[in-house]
Amino acid sequence: MPSTAIIFGALLILIGLLGYGYVMTTPNPSPTALIPAIFGIVLVLLGVFARARENLRKHLMHAAVIVALLGFLGTVSSFVKIFSVFAGTAERPVAVIAQFTTAIICIVFIVLSVKSFIAARKARA
What we know:
mainly alpha
């Protein structure tokens, strides 16, 4: 599971960097485009520490799920906004797409983590 956290964290970092690269080309660049990267950095760090500290792995992976849950909750509104992108009425379509992608990545990570936690519990029993 630590490897999964690192991979999903890297994806979030990529979204943040691509979004920030795009907004730097606009008249009003905003550092808020880097928010997915911040969540990604935290996930990567938790994954790396979980690999290094076997005795803390369970706690660190639970913390990673909480980080992903916060990322999902912060971007879940994009599920409604994404339709405005397709309709051509979105004020900042790239931001909505970045939020939507962040939400998808976070929820997939949460689902995979919960499945892993259930499998680990069954294996111990």
